[in-house]
């Protein structure tokens, strides 16, 4: 049952998908025996008023308090609806907190601009915090590095994998770079092998990245990158294997797009 002042998630056709809306009125239209209650909702984003039936209102979910800071880990949310998840991601994004956790998984929302959490200084600080740090690519790298080097019994760990996936323009290439940078920082690695691993991305991007309608630096290939460590737990070498290169782009880029950067 609706109550005045109750705040719910209202589905809207705009890009926001869901907005907070507050119940401002509830009335009964006594015109026919089949008349149903009509509930008036005022949207928080633009103040517009929307009317919904009581039956439709029952399917709406209560919205949390917008004055509370958004959760760093979405598993901490009491309400596990799409609206609540998107709201937390959107509010963190507005604060330039582009990383959010779902348990061990890190969600990254591409800001398309430099942010403080991705500088070399920030990476070094996050590496010191390790697995207990704020949601970040570095935390995923720290979990993998610790799993590789130690176990609960104190013995040596085993090989680890970090999967980076997302649509074009999501920031996969940059996330991979940050992972390599974090692994170098966590292991205290330096020297030719480490520098070559960090700088190899530029060469791969030259031959495998191109401008598309969605992304000015879109990777048009898949990549499997292996990082090998020596007995001192420092980077000794790296190996990159490229697959599914978009070969047709070489002879005929689509309209509004370009060939690979090297050309």
UniProtKB/TrEMBL annotation:
<dbReference type="InterPro" id="IPR027417">
    <property type="entry name" value="P-loop_NTPase"/>
</dbReference>
<comment type="similarity">
    <text>Belongs to the TRAFAC class myosin-kinesin ATPase superfamily. Myosin family.</text>
</comment>
<dbReference type="Pfam" id="PF00063">
    <property type="entry name" value="Myosin_head"/>
</dbReference>
<keyword id="KW-0518">Myosin</keyword>
<dbReference type="GO" id="GO:0016459">
    <property type="term" value="C:myosin complex"/>
</dbReference>
<dbReference type="GO" id="GO:0000146">
    <property type="term" value="F:microfilament motor activity"/>
</dbReference>
<dbReference type="GO" id="GO:0005524">
    <property type="term" value="F:ATP binding"/>
</dbReference>
<protein>
    <recommendedName>
        <fullName>Myosin motor domain-containing protein</fullName>
    </recommendedName>
</protein>
<dbReference type="InterPro" id="IPR036961">
    <property type="entry name" value="Kinesin_motor_dom_sf"/>
</dbReference>
<feature type="domain" description="Myosin motor">
    <location>
        <begin position="69"/>
        <end position="263"/>
    </location>
</feature>
<keyword id="KW-0067">ATP-binding</keyword>
<dbReference type="GO" id="GO:0005737">
    <property type="term" value="C:cytoplasm"/>
</dbReference>
<keyword id="KW-0547">Nucleotide-binding</keyword>
<dbReference type="InterPro" id="IPR001609">
    <property type="entry name" value="Myosin_head_motor_dom-like"/>
</dbReference>
<feature type="binding site">
    <location>
        <begin position="166"/>
        <end position="173"/>
    </location>
    <ligand>
        <name>ATP</name>
    </ligand>
</feature>
<keyword id="KW-0505">Motor protein</keyword>
<dbReference type="GO" id="GO:0016020">
    <property type="term" value="C:membrane"/>
</dbReference>
<dbReference type="GO" id="GO:0051015">
    <property type="term" value="F:actin filament binding"/>
</dbReference>
<dbReference type="GO" id="GO:0007015">
    <property type="term" value="P:actin filament organization"/>
</dbReference>
<keyword id="KW-0009">Actin-binding</keyword>
């Amino acid at each position: 049952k609706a109550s005045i002042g109750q705040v719910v998630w209202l589905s809207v056709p705009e890009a926001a998908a869901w907005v907070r809306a507050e119940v401002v009125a509830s009335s009964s239209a006594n015109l026919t025996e089949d008349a149903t209650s009509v509930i008036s909702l005022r949207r928080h984003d633009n103040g517009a008023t929307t009317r919904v039936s009581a039956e439709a209102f029952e399917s709406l979910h209560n919205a949390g308090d917008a004055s509370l800071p958004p959760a760093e880990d979405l598993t901490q949310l009491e309400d596990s609806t799409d609206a609540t998840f998107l709201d937390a991601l959107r509010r963190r994004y507005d604060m330039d907190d582009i990383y959010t956790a779902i348990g061990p998984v890190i969600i990254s929302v591409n800001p398309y601009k430099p942010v403080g959490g991705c500088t070399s200084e920030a990476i070094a600080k996050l590496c010191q915090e390790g697995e207990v740090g704020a949601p970040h690519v570095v935390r995923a790298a720290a979990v993998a590095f610790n799993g590789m080097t130690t176990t609960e019994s104190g013995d040596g760990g085993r090989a680890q994998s970090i999967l980076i996936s997302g649509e074009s323009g999501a920031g996969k290439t940059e996330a991979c770079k940050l992972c390599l940078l974090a692994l170098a920082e966590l292991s205290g690695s330096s020297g030719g092998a480490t520098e070559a691993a960090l700088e190899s991305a530029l060469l791969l991007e030259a031959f495998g990245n191109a401008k598309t309608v969605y992304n000015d630096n879109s990777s048009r290939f898949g990549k499997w990158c292996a990082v090998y460590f020596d007995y001192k737990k420092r980077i000794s070498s790296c190996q990159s294997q490229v697959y599914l290169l978009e070969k047709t782009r070489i002879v005929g880029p689509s309209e509004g797009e370009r060939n690979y950067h090297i050309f």
